[in-house]
Amino acid sequence: MAPRKPIYEGKAKQLFEGPEPGTLIQHFKDDATAFNNVKKGTISGKGVLNNRISEYLMLRLHDMGIPTHFIRTLNMREQLIKAVQIVPLEVIVRNYAAGSFSKRFGVTEGKALGHPMIEYCYKNDALGDPFVTEEHIFAFNWCTPQEMDEIRMYAFRINDFLSGLFAGIGIRLVDFKLEFGRLFENEREMIILADEISPDNCRLWDLKSGKKLDKDRFRQDLGQIEDAYREVARRLGVLPQDGTESSYVIEVNAKMPEKRKAASKSSATKTKSTKAKKKK
Ligand SMILES: Nc1ncnc2c1ncn2[C@@H]1O[C@H](COP(=O)(O)OP(=O)(O)OP(=O)(O)O)[C@@H](O)[C@H]1O
Ligand SMILES: [Mg+2]
Q1: Would the pTM count as exceeding 0.70?
Q2: Which of 31, 104, 114, 166 could form a disulfide with 171 if both were Cys (CB 3.0 to 4.6 A apart)?
Q3: 241-257 pLDDT, tens digit each
Q4: Of the bound ligands, which one is closest to the alpha carbon of residue 13?
Q5: Do 79 and 89 lie in a common domain?
């Protein structure tokens, strides 16, 4: 099998060309960055956990009518997704003051906001992802007012749903970042949820103790980073049972229809032989 075509390497994930037109493979790495790439490190096992957590949350959101890019999990670190044209915005939903918001407005971390709110940043690492308003968004034609309405509506619905879901497992959803994209299907264009939802881009605090269970542990050198990610996965009921890749593939295949199992078996064999060749 020809090596798959890399499309993009980001800070936390890699994208490869997918097996069918209009699809991509999203590979979750253990790499972690903070403060716009100034701080770099790895969180061992993060990619595996984020793949699992994002799969679970995207599926639950799909169940409640939010269109997402998630198609299916391929293996421990990879999922098949619909390729979209990313709207170049970080959509940040906040329920409590934290992080840069607390600093900008001089508000204590953890203060409840009067109501949930959305902030937008222009996705551009070179410019440090600057905050923008809808005026900038329309002036630069990053998206139309109709698309903006949909993005806002989805973001608030996602917030309501995820806040409840996390509260149910003893976690406060403090804030989180979403990305949306345009999907072109049957001559129609629609906005769907893309990227990932994981402790990399959500602030998650234990409801009772206030313990941070997210990437702030890495940003602030709080230690026990892997444990925090694992704790979120455990509470969501998606912790991989046994850390080995082979057991995971068997488990995923067991959930697949027969036809797909055969296809995935042959591609797994091919992947192994490609890896073996590479080692040589
Ligand atoms: N369904 C999708 N189709 C196309 N691109 C996607 C899709 N979902 C996510 N992406 C993009 O894939 C990349 C994922 O990589 P990663 O999250 O590591 O990037 P990053 O280093 O954070 O950089 P960026 O600032 O672009 O997000 C992001 O650029 C994200 O916008
Ligand atoms: Mg990213």
Answers
A1: yes
A2: 166
A3: 755 544 454 444 444 44
A4: 1
A5: no
125 C-alpha vs ligand 2 centroid, how far in Å?
10
> Tens digits of per-residue pLDDT, 18-61?
999 999 999 999 999 999 889 999 999 999 999 999 999 999 99
Does 98 lie in the same domain as 221?
yes
Which residue's CA is the closest to the ligand 1 atom numbered 10?
195
What is the DSSP-derived secondary structure letter of residue 21?
T
Atom of ligand 1 minimally distant from the CA of 123: 25
Largest CA distance in the chain: 60
CA of 269 to the centre of ligand 2 (A): 30
Strands (E), the chain: 6-9, 13-17, 23-28, 31-34, 39-42, 70-75, 78-82, 85-86, 89-96, 112-122, 131-132, 171-185, 188-194, 202-206
Ligand 1 binding pocket includes 83 (Cβ within 6 Å): yes
Residue 55's domain comprises 6-83+240-279
Residue 29 CA: nearest ligand 1 atom is 18
pLDDT in tens, 116-159: 999 999 999 999 999 999 999 999 999 999 999 999 999 999 99
